[in-house]
Amino acid sequence: MKPYLIPTFYRFTLFLCLLFSTVACRGNEQQQTQQTATNVQQQPTQREHRHHRHSERTADNQTNPPTNNTAAVPDYVQTVLTYVRQNRRAPQGYVGGRTFGNFEKLLPIQNSAGLRLRYQEWDVKPKVQGQNRGAERLITSSDDHAYYTRDHYRSFTEIK
Hints:
- This protein is an alpha+beta fold.
- The protein folds into two domains: 5-43; 70-159, Microbial ribonucleases (Nuclear Transport Factor 2, Chain: A, Roll).
- Helices cover 36% and strands 14% of the residues.
- The chain has helices at residues 5-42, 46-52, 75-87; strands at residues 96-100, 119-123, 137-141, 146-149, 157-159.
- Strand 4 and strand 5 (157-159) form a beta hairpin.
- The longest helix is centred in the N-terminal third of the chain and has 38 residues, at 5-42.
- The relative contact order is 0.13.
């Protein structure tokens, strides 16, 4: 047997192994791509999902407007609201200040002058590492109105 044939045999074997592994990987990749495409087609887009996720509609398909029952607002919510109004930031250890989109349009869209309102959301309880933040939120508007939701944006109570 000639000495140069052995390295050629190993090279050829290595080439075949690489070729087969490449083809096998491509097959898996195409299958995963097809599954992902199918899943994306079956699910609504994230914006659509986010827009309609928390809408609570009445029988005639109208949204529930905020109520004015300030007595239903806990004292700790009033405390957070006072802090936010004075400092324009969340208290130490709380999450807050993010934009609230009002996608469900349960809160007013414009102020009395016709200007678009902007909203920010605030947690009403301190963040505890490793625990869910809960459903309660405080929403403040660019015209200094405030709203409390105990059910994560399904309904609102206006705070005076």
